[in-house]
Amino acid sequence: MTLSVQSDIPFLTELRHDLHAHPELRFEENRTAALVASRLRTLGYAPHTGIAGTGVVATLDTGLSGPAIMLRADMDALPVRETGTASWISRNEGVMHACGHDGHTVMLLGAAESLAAQPPERGIVHFVFQPAEEGGAGAKVMIEDGLFERFPTQFCFGLHNWPGLEAGRLGVRTGPIMAGGWRFRIVITGKGSHAAQPHLGTDPLTIGAALVQEAQLLVARRTDPMVAAVVSFCIFEAGTTDNILPQTATLAGTLRALDPQVLNDLKAGLARLCSGLAEAHGAAISVDFHQPYPVTVNAPDATDLARAAMLRLMEEEGGPVPELDIVPSLASEDFGFMLERKVGAYAMIGNGDSARLHAPDYDFDDAIIPRGVRYWHTLARNCATAL
Ligand SMILES: [Zn+2]
Ligand SMILES: [Zn+2]
């Protein structure tokens, strides 16, 4: 049987531009959620709204007993000032769809449309439109808000666009695909002094500089070179003028690894480094670890379902050969919270030679919308027969 996918691509493209022009930050996706729910109602669904604040879930129940699966898209934007030139650039100053969640949202709406027209043979499909993927752990908040109790499911699937991967090329892998992470904030309290009399104070700035350097050795010298890990300091704030050594310095950043044990080791190592430097220099150093994201780990059987869908798509309509063992990323994803509880697979779809995710000149490639819709469509229909 050939795939016939019925979804209104021009509508989805226009909606994508509309969402892009009106981006909303985490947990503030009110307009977006309203548009999603309205479209779902038009398609004949009875969406549940207000889950984790702005989350929306719609269910397609074939009425025949079979597997229940969950397909998830994220809806939130980022605090980035857009520099692109498209006519649909952000009208919301300082907020931007810099991660392509506008594209994810419409691809899943397209799947809800095509699967309503051509449903799986049996079973249930839940379409999940999630808030606050960017640093808000929206997936976790949806779970805490009863997602899996209200919408019982066996398998969860996610899809993210990926700049640098050929446009429309799909990719997946078994095991860790996105990193686990911790954010940290470090405050070094020394003793302010005259810039010309450093010995009379305790300079938090030089201690902070040493900390940034030393922390790199947690990766270079404390982590197996065959294992992926990264320590990034992203904020270093200290001082008021150029002839005073400041009293305090604040540093913040993130730790990432594909193995939870490695991540714990990095965390313990950074804490040890802070207390060691405090002791060595007579300063006080506090370190606060927050926002833990788990490693996103694809289960073998769910990954095989994703692979089968990708291969079938290629057979049916050609296009780029899927990457069935794609290189993982040290970016992190709150979909990991879903995969901690449910078997599933997180996949990638190439966004071509675009600017990188979170860059101010990034844009989602409209040309990949049909491919994303068909991936979801094929996956859902395959699950009904394969499980
Ligand atoms: Zn994203
Ligand atoms: Zn992102």
From TrEMBL:
This is Amidohydrolase. Residues 180-275 form the Peptidase M20 dimerisation domain. PANTHER family: METALLOPEPTIDASE, PUTATIVE (AFU_ORTHOLOGUE AFUA_6G09600)-RELATED (PTHR11014:SF63), PEPTIDASE M20 FAMILY MEMBER (PTHR11014). The keyword Hydrolase applies. It comes from Acetobacter conturbans. The keyword Hydrolase applies. Signal peptide: none annotated. It comes from the Bacteria. Keywords: Hydrolase.
